[in-house]
Structure formats: C-alpha cells, structure tokens
C-alpha cells in the first residue's frame, strides 16, 4: 500500500505541473522559463520517493557554459535525479519520439522543448542536430543517454554515436556523468520506488578541439572509459567490470560493435 500511495502522489503532482508546462510552453520558444516547473517537479518526485541526491565533481564545471552531459542510464528515476543534481544548468533531453505520446509527461516534454527523434528516420536524426544546435546557442545543455536504453543489470552497454556527432558538430564539451544507486531505487520494469541515496559523479569536461566526425570512434572510447572508471567506485559495479575484463576492454567493445555506430540514435 505504501508503494501505491507514492505512485499516486507522484501522479497527482505530475498532472497539474504538466498542464502548466503545456500552457506556458506555447509562449516560451526555448523552454527556458517553464524549466523552473521541471525543477519543482523533480524535487517533489524525489521528496515523495524518499530519494536523496549527492553530487561530486561540480566544481569542475562553469554554470555559464553549456555542455553535453553523457550519462549512464539504469532507471526512469534518472531524469528527476539529474534535474535535481545538475540544478545550475538548463537541461534538455534527446528521447525517442514515442515518449511524446505518453499522457501529460510526454506532452510536457514537447512543451518544454526537449528533443525527440524518430529512430527509424535518418533525416529526422539530422533535424535533431539542427534543433540541438539552436538550444546550445541559447546556453542550454543537452543530456544524452548514449547507451540508448536502460541497463537491466547495471553493466554499461555499448554507446550509440549520435551524441558524439552532436558534440563534434556543435563544439560543445562532453561531460561524462555517472549515476550510482537508481537501479536499486527503481529497477527497469518496476513501478515501486524505494527510499535510498543516489550519487552523481561528474567528470572533467572533454574538449572537442581535437575531434572531428572521422574520430567519433576514438571519442566514444574515451568517454566510455571514463564513465566505466567512475562506475568502479561502487563495490558491486567493480565486481561486474572485473568479470568483463575491466573498463578498457569494455570501452573497446563499445566501439568495435558495428551496430553501435551505424545508426546514431537507435536502441
């Protein structure tokens, strides 16, 4: 019953906030004003769920600089966790277009000017790059889950190249970010939110100065290696990575699979 109460409370707060976002979003071309509603929603969801967030490494970033945050993905709770943890930044997500049809949540995403993509349409991927560049010009940071989907067992999945292409095209630095703890709080396929603490580790920004579209493979390897190394800071993940051969082997696997680089945004 307690889990049902938390889910119901989150639903009750989500619907009116989504409606406010949709209403004011019509008059907000980049979603910068309505983003405050997203911050309040994220804070409320985490408060109801009994989730606390600790962030390390923010001192390496400038709040005046937009970034592309490359983040591991383990749970649906990752989104409010990032909004709360990276509160100094205006964040926009690149998500599959199907999410826009989710009642209230998806509609609010559209109104807040998050980026959606039709993964079966290559021309749509190019349009997303154009829209993302416009957001960047407004000082807005982009969040990419380069694995393309949530990890079931916590292991880092191969990275898709779309976010790296975006970074190279816009010249925006990539920040490797690792989230610890959300898989236990809300596992993939579950609706039960457990109490707990989440830790966000923010890595040093990676400049795009020496990267070009032809060097995306090397860039993906570098970012994957950094995220994998940050994941090793928890005992459970360290054991998993050891069985797989460590972060270096995992990084090679992430770019040696041709399917992970052939279609930029596909799962």
Number of helices: 11
| Average predicted confidence as pLDDT | 85
Determine and state the CATH class: Alpha Beta
Q: Tell me the radius of gyration.
A: 18 Å
State the share of residues found in helices, binned by percent. 40-55%
What name does the CATH topology carry? Glycerol-3-phosphate (1)-acyltransferase
Total tally of structural domains: 1
What portion of residues belong to β-strands?
Answer: 5-15%
Strand order of the largest sheet: 1-7-6-2-5-3-4
Shape: globular
Question: What's the CATH H-level homologous superfamily?
Answer: Glycerol-3-phosphate (1)-acyltransferase
Largest pleated sheet: 7 strands, mixed
CATH architectural label: 3-Layer(aba) Sandwich
Q: Please identify the structural class as seen in this structure.
A: alpha/beta
Can you describe what's shown?
The protein is globular. The chain has a seven-stranded mixed sheet, with helices on both faces. It has helices at 2-25, 35-49, 78-85, 105-111, 122-137, 162-170, 182-185, 216-231, 235-244, 246-256, 259-262, and strands spanning 51-56, 68-71, 91-96, 115-117, 141-144, 174-180, 196-202. Helix 1 packs parallel to helix 4, helix 2 packs across helix 3 (78-85) and helix 8 (216-231) packs antiparallel against helix 10. The model is unreliable at 235-245, 247-253 and 256-262 (pLDDT under 50). It has a single domain (51-96, 114-262), classed as Glycerol-3-phosphate (1)-acyltransferase. 46% of the residues lie in helices and 14% in strands. With 267 residues, the chain is α/β, with parallel strands linked by helices.
């Amino acid at each position: 019953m307690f889990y049902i109460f938390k889910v119901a409370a989150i639903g009750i707060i989500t619907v009116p906030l989504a409606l406010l976002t949709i209403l004011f979003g019509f008059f907000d071309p980049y979603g910068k004003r309505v983003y405050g509603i997203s911050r309040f929603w994220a804070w409320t969801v985490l408060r109801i769920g009994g989730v606390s967030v600790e962030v390390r490494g923010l001192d390496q970033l400038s709040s005046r600089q937009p970034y592309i945050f490359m983040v591991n993905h383990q749970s649906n709770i990752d989104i409010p966790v990032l909004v709360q943890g990276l509160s100094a930044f205006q964040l926009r997500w690149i998500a599959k277009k199907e999410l826009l049809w989710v009642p209230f949540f998806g509609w609010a995403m559209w109104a807040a000017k998050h980026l959606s993509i039709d993964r079966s349409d290559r021309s749509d991927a190019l349009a997303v790059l154009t829209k993302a560049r416009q957001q960047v010009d407004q000082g807005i940071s982009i969040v990419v889950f380069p694995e393309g989907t949530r990890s079931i067992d916590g292991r880092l999945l191969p990275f898709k190249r779309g976010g790296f292409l975006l970074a190279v095209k816009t010249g925006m630095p990539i920040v490797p970010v690792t989230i610890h703890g959300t898989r236990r709080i809300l596992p993939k396929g579950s609706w039960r939110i457990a109490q707990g603490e989440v830790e966000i580790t923010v890595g040093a920004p990676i400049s795009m100065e020496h990267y070009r579209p032809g060097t995306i493979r090397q860039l993906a390897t570098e970012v994957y290696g950094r995220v994998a190394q940050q994941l090793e800071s928890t005992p459970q993940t360290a054991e998993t990575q050891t069985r797989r051969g460590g972060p270096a082997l995992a990084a090679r696997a992430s770019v040696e699979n041709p399917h992970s680089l052939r279609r930029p945004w596909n799962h």
